[in-house]
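README: folding subset

This subset contains proteins for which both the sequence and a predicted structure token string are available. Records are stored as plain text. Below is the entry for Phosphoenolpyruvate-protein phosphotransferase (325 residues), shown exactly as it appears on disk.
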Amino acid sequence: ADSDRAEVRSDPVATSDGKPIEVAANVGQPAELEGATEQGADGIGLYRTEFLFLERESPPDEEEQYETYVEALDAFPEGRVVVRTLDVGGDKPIPYLELPEEENPFLGDRGIRRSLGVDADLFETQLRALLRAAADGAGDLAVMIPMVATVEEFESARETLDSVAADLDSEAVDYEIPEFGLMIETPSAAFMADEFAARAEFLSIGTNDLTQYVMAASRGNERVSELHDPQHPAVLRAIARTVDGAEGTDAWVGMCGEMAGDPELTELLVGLSLDELSMSAVTIPDVKANVSETDRESAEKLAKRTLQASTKRDVERLLDGDAEN
Ligand code: PEP
Ligand code: MG
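--- output ---
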């Protein structure tokens, strides 16, 4: 099957009519950086930082984090590296964190909720390390906040960033303010996308969680896997609403959920007007090839039809039909 794969392209790609689409890698640990480069990633669209905190007795200090972030930035001297702040909740055991058992951990104290609450110290340390790395690493850093549901949460996160910057200033430590944005992975954030786009440099749609919450179907539960599918028109409408919310602002809109890495969906995602797609490294060559073969006008027509579909089956039929043309 390897021979069916597209050639690796390390240059950025554009649609056949010339719109550049950034194709980036999702990375979950430093060992994956090399593979991302080898597959031709333009940068990192989602660096999950949970690995830094898992399987150890105490949290990583500022220095260890700083080095980890600089390493990632140095791997993409021409690109952008989107680092997501710690996204833990009651479903992952971390011995030194206070992780109470919750009845509904996916609806509980997770992501930014913890970072502004019980994990506030960890959040500050992580931001200090990130701001310092932004000044010293080769690539461009962007910092992304997970699980945001309210405008106040994002504003508080920005205030923390600003106060960390003020501290570094007063200590005469080198730092840079990175691009600052959030994941759109709660229905609330998708509905409020215009408010977020007015306050953030970017939005990145996390379709794994967004699908889970829009469809009320767990991401890991086989009994409801039919429902946990981003091709449901409800999820497509949430994506479209997010993109619409950012229209007319300077915020770019990406996607870093698994959906972004499905080569069969590239045309649809281009048609939905995403600026960036981030995925597991192995699918990058195929997605880059598909982007360069996509004509935006027909992609937008396809997207429009799927947004009018009544069911997932209708969406699938539209995508199949289009593949035959
Ligand atoms: C998502 O929710 O789509 C996402 C990219 O984040 P994670 O899979 O780490 O929850
Ligand atoms: Mg998520």
